[in-house]
Amino acid sequence: MKVGDKHYRSIWFDEPSGQVQIIEQRWLPHEFRVVDLKTRDDFVVAIRDMWVRGAPLIGATAAYGVAVQMALDPSDKSLAETWDILHETRPTAINLRWALDEMNALLKPLPKGERAAAAMKRAHEIADEDVECNRMIGVHGLEIIREIASRKKPGEVVNILTHCNAGWLATVDWGTATSPMYHAVQDGIPIHVWVDETRPRNQGALLTAWEMNSHGIPHHLIVDNAGGHLMQHGQVDLVIVGTDRTTAHGDVCNKIGTYLKALAARDNNVPFYVALPSPTIDWTVKDGVAEIPIEERTDTEVTHVQGKLADGTVTEVQISPDGTPGGNPAFDVTPRRLVTGLITERGVCEASPEGLAALFPDRVRK
Predict the structure, then answer these.
(1) Which residues does the UniProt site feature Transition state stabilizer point to (predicted)?
(2) Fewer Cβ atoms within 10 A, N terminus or C terminus of the chain?
């Protein structure tokens, strides 16, 4: 997608410098920074400390991290250590493990002298595959928006609510939940997006709102608890969210607060869709609530907020009383019964073992 008049991916290999580069997302929307990732430790910090975030982007970043490490040390020990070290950075997003397994399976049989070139080639492929997956999610999701728009009066907009950031900043390009929105705008369908602030890290306020604003999509930033009220008053036609891990039976793990949106949507007969590329499906897990590990992040994300002062200074301030600890589960699980459908690169299916098996017969484990 574009920033100003220049096209960017969220991660890329810069040929002139020979470095992997990322958009350092912690500073958005107030500052746009591009940084180099030169060592394995750089990739660890970027993933762990959320310089990059979003399950698909985490996977692509890990793949590039392996490639960079193989150029420095292509030994078996280095390969094994890199898998372990990168895998420990974020426990919930399954794309991380998927990408590391892809790299491991490719590189282990190869002679050490061939590993660096092969690793970088596969990292490029993983990034390109993610872009195409997300583009196709938009193509299939567009049909859902188009059908809703066909029932509207001339000039009426389709109101879409989303939670957290499942935009191009959370992937390599296009985004998951936002891809249908971008396609709808290109198709000339008038849409309006309700953007949840998404406490505690405010990815909706900082990132999704920035994306919508950058691309000229009408939107409003709302507090996390406003969604149900808007649904009650007929101001939401559709909910589309992303996911960090989806089980083989259709349960969806996403940013904390997603479950509450799904409950409100069900109570108000609002369709609730989840957009995901297939590497986000964990075919080894059936029960999301019981089996998916939920990342517990630092309490300062709850007790402090980052913002811009009147003089333009970006700073962090404490909002809680001294001595009050914060609890910070980063994700929750939405049971499949609350999900209207899953939007994937192969089409839309119901959130069920049968629905997923119909789209991905080649991926289902017996």
Answers:
(1) 164
(2) C
